[in-house]
Specification:
The structure is a single chain. The chain is an alpha+beta fold. Helix content is 26%, strand content 35%. The chain contains two helices and four strands, in the order ββββαα. The protein has helices at residues 74-84, 89-114, and strands at 2-15, 29-41, 44-54, 59-70. It has a four-stranded antiparallel beta sheet with strand order 1-4-3-2. Strand 2 and strand 3 (44-54) form a beta hairpin.
Length: 143
């Protein structure tokens, strides 16, 4: 599957609590969802998606958009979507990854404007000769 284009159609963001009322820990939940798969040309799919970053009682960021992609089995994929509301795992994984790679960087800027924490974990820097036992001083592990 070849992703040709990703467009955001709408962005909705809200902060529910005042910045001074921050709780100590905020859980940020990410969700990407495919809402529609349409075969709009012989080998082309139009996939509508939603991305949500939820900050619990603090706020939320929601985006909707469209992905245009090419696949030799576009007709079959659209039919499968209509019948089961599912795509093959590998294709769904590629789509959700593309949604996250597009939406999360956009959400970081929006979160900053609203005074929300960024929806990505920031690295922790610990200085000193005696790091706490069991805590790693290294960065993110990449496989």
């Amino acid at each position: 599957m070849l992703i040709k284009n990703i467009k955001l159609k709408s962005i909705e963001a809200r902060r529910y609590a005042e910045p001074d009322d921050k709780p100590m820990q905020i859980r940020i939940d990410h969700n990407s969802q495919i809402s529609q798969v349409i075969n709009n040309a012989e080998k082309q799919l139009l996939i509508e998606f939603q991305y949500t970053a939820s900050y619990g009682p603090i706020g939320m960021i929601k985006m909707e958009g469209t992905i245009v992609c090419e696949d030799p089995e576009a007709k079959q994929l659209a039919k499968e979507w209509l019948d089961t509301r599912k795509l093959p795992d590998q294709i769904a994984s590629n789509i959700h990854t593309a949604v996250m790679h597009t939406s999360v960087p956009e959400a970081v800027g929006i979160a900053k404007d609203l005074g929300l924490p960024p929806p990505i974990p920031l690295p922790q820097v610990r200085l000193g000769a005696d790091p706490k036992k069991g805590q790693s001083q290294s960065g993110v592990e990449v496989a």
